[in-house]
Amino acid sequence: MSLTEIQLNSLNTGRFSQSTIEFDCECVVDREDVITDYNIFWIEEGEAKVTIDFVQHDIKGNNFFFLNPGQIFSVASENKLKGTRIAFGENFYCPKTNDGEIGCNGLLFNNLLGSPKLEIGPSKEQKFTDLLSTIGSSLAQNITAKQELVESYLKILLIELTEYKKKEVVLMETSGDDGQEILRQFNGLVEDNYSRWHQIAPYAETFGISPTSFTKKLSKLGVSPSKIIHNRIIIQAKRLLYFTSKQVKEIAYELGFDEPAHFSSFFKNKTDQYPADFRKKAH
Hints:
Elements: E1 4-10, E2 16-23, E3 33-34, E4 38-45, E5 47-52, E6 55-60, E7 63-67, E8 72-77, E9 81-88, H1 99-102, E10 117-119, H2 122-140, H3 146-168, H4 179-193, H5 201-206, H6 211-219, H7 225-243, H8 248-254, H9 260-271, H10 275-282
Antiparallel strand pairs: 1-2, 2-9, 3-8, 4-7, 4-9, 5-6, 5-8, 7-10
């Protein structure tokens, strides 16, 4: 990952950690890492090019960015990069199963539409710096209820970040007060079902509306539901082609295609190259 952890604090269970990260010199990334936990990065100083699932993003000071388990991640920096990383597993706190509590799934994590980064304005910088400092202090305490204390501060951080992220979302048109919430829930549904639901109909049925009405509702937000579904399938296909030795036909069946030829045609249509060609170029 090309980042140096100069200080690491974690719970004894190993399900939660907070580290100070730093990179001091020019870096050329020669490999990617697969993320195994949920990650929150807070960049305080420097600039970097972060690649997440083969898409590059420019990150700078006062930026958060968020990673989900399973994502492919690398970072390159041309100058000193400083910040904080928080990592936690699903057995510590799961944004998906606790979605009704905070609502960060589909906004901070598993956001299939928007950017994985969040730029914090100067007026809010101190608030988040203080929250991260409080979490670090809690990890250093020798108390019986440390896990519960850390979890409570993590929830506060997620709530504040989620509310800030909501303000960043700019809708092309208004489709009612529930439009953004439907989009967020749809992101989560796609993450859980993309390998078996390739069409809009089952997603629309979940919301109790017809596929046509569902498409129209999201199109008013500037969103194509079919594009979100197809993009998620392609992301997983690329991960499997890059990081596993599974045959193309195995990947096709794993992603819910009845015939490997259908998968190859689908991949070619979306990426302008066949799966085997992508694998060769990626390596």
